Amino acid sequence: MSVVTYIVKGNNVHYLKQTFQTTIFISLILLSFGCGPEAIVEAPVTGTGGFSFSIDPSEQEVTLLTTGIEPALQTVTPPGETRRLVNGVDLELSNFDFRFLPGETLIIEASFKNITSEFNFIQPFSFELDTELTRNIVSSREPIVSDIDLGDDGKLNPGEKTPTFTFEITHRNQAFDYAVDAFASVEPASGEVVCGLVSVSSQAQLDTLRSCRQLSGLSIVDVSPLDLSPLSNLLKIDGQLNIINSGLENLGGLENLESVKGIYFERNSALKNINGLKNLKNIDRRLAIRESNLLTSLEGLENLEVLGSLFLTDNPALENIDSLVNLTTLESLESIVIDNNDSLTNLEGLRRMRRVLSVQLNNNGSLENLEGLRELKAVIGLGGFIIKNNDALINFEGLANLAEVSILTISDNEALTTLDGVNTFRINRELIISNNASLTNISALKNVETLDIIELDIAGNSSLTTLEGLEKLGPNASSITVSNNAALTSIEGLTGFTRVFGDVAITENTSLSSLQGLNNLKSIRDSLTLTENDALVGLEGIQRLVTGDSSVDLLGIRRNASLANLTALSELQAINSLVIESNPALTTLDGLEKLEVVNVNLVINNNDNLVSLAGLARLIKVGGTGSRGLTITGNDALTSLEGLNNIKSVCWT
After folding, report:
1. Per-residue confidence at 450, pLDDT binned at 50, 70, 90?
2. pLDDT band at residue 563 under the 50/70/90 scheme
3. How distant, in Å, are the alpha carbons of 317, 389, 410 from that of 361?
4. Banded pLDDT at 255 (limits 50, 70, 90)
5. Which residue among 242, 299, 557, 558 is buried most deeply as judged by most CB within 10 Å?
């Protein structure tokens, strides 16, 4: 579940972070705040489902805590009886303010909103101190709720708010906790039979729901055999429908269901079809079907009009998703995850999809093409567009209309030979192309541009020979990695980049003989690593990076079997760190004749045939605060330190 944390100062609500937890989601909406001390809404803590505060008088600070609890199964009460109203399920704070008064008194003022769609809250309605969670106070006074406080009809109806109530606490001028619970009698908001949130673990429990026309939620777990016919009167589920680990073969009994917030089916190994959903029109949030081993299609969803997100994972017999074609909301979905469906050959059911926050197409061994995405124009969320481990996919035909993508990941598609099918589009954040064994070229990306700063990772594509097609990327990158591309002979497609705000790594490209392509780079904030490029003879291509006002923080040259010279560094005068290590063909340091200062570390290690340090004749200073200074070890052929004569300072700490 998603838990959102806010900090509230004065009348402003600032978004801080979003994390994912398995606790129940508690929604707190703080609409109006008085100026003054800081109030913080934090993640859920264990509690009763009420309203809890942590207070520090010395800091004039009140922290409002959400409390995680499963709502009661029976949500309607007999007349005159009450039940606890659950924070984030029944009630939420609508307004909240506080003030510290002389005499060690805290005043909290708050109003509350009925956030259900199916219940009225009526008298007796009360607020009661939670003595288990309250500590270190002298006394408290909770408000008395009158009929008029609940509205002209004496009912707090769905969507209605209470007036502002006052809570008064006398404390000891030390940190303390204060918690209250709300209680009320609960009646249905309409004449329909509303049965609340129900968890079912037996057929007998399900049989008691025959009269229900509306549910707040339904969870059926580990019931086999299972007969859904008691649900034949059910029209609407305001929450989630979960059916997990059942013996169901079909969804007979749900034929009258028209609307549900979300569906989660998992480990229903006998489920052959979902035709029982034939009248379902709305799934506001997520449709998730996992591990349904016999399900071959989504037949039964032809009348579905609204869908929030789609998750289809681990359904080995699923051949098509054509039944989704009538969805009107396909133009703007949240997420699509289609993962490990071995028999799925196409995505035709998504052919009307135009805009989505994220798409994941992973491990679909029979997926041959992306033609079903021919109307797709934008994938704009941080989840990006991931196409991974689809062994039958040979190209990107079907993506011609794609215009914008936040993150594009193309990985482990062993039959993919080209990216043909894409046209002109923009990448906003990241481009990752990795471990596509048959990919020979990426020239189809020739019209792809970047919005601002991009992370680029080209790795493990054993048949890729050039980076032609990337010329329009740039000018800025957060990082660039080109690694383990065994057939790569040229990186000239990188000429569009001039500035990198992180690292550049060119590593383990055994056929790469030149660094031409880095010619326009003039700044790398962190490191440039050149490692295990066995065919690399020289460093031509990085001259601009080491000239004049250009800069790189650390230059690491390691284990390049054929590297014979450093002449491309002939204009290098100063650098923070320089590492020259395990380059067996390197015999001299010619090319470093202008180097005068290494501010942090200079490492010259294990270059077996290095015979001379004469190239360092102008070096006068090595090291500084926080450095290791100068290290020269394991150079077996080196017999003299001639070349270090002019060093005046070597520092290390």
Report:
1. confident
2. very high
3. 16, 8, 10
4. very high
5. 557
- Cα angle 279-283-91, degrees, rounded to a multiple of 5: 125
Closest CA to 390 of 409, 372, 364: 364
Nearest to 2 by CA among 15, 21, 16: 21
- Give pairs for 266-273: CB < 8 Å, separation 24+: 266/242, 266/290, 266/291, 267/291, 268/243, 268/244, 268/292, 269/293, 269/294, 270/294, 271/246, 271/295, 272/296, 273/297, 273/299, 273/300
Q: Alpha-carbon distance 336 to 44, whole Å?
A: 28
| Angular region, 173: left φ>0, alpha ψ -120 to 50, beta rest | left
Pairing of strands 2-9, 551-558: unpaired
Pairing mode, strands 91-101 and 105-114: antiparallel
For residue 430, count CB atoms less than 10 angstroms from its CB and return exposed for 0-12, middle for 13-18, buried for 19 or more.
Answer: buried
Cβ-based burial of 570 (10 A; exposed 0-12, middle 13-18, buried ≥19): middle
Listed by start position, the domains of the chain span: 2-188, 573-579+592-653
pLDDT of residue 624: 76
Q: Please check the confidence at residue 242 and state whether its pLDDT lies above 70.
A: yes
Pairing of strands 453-459, 259-266: unpaired
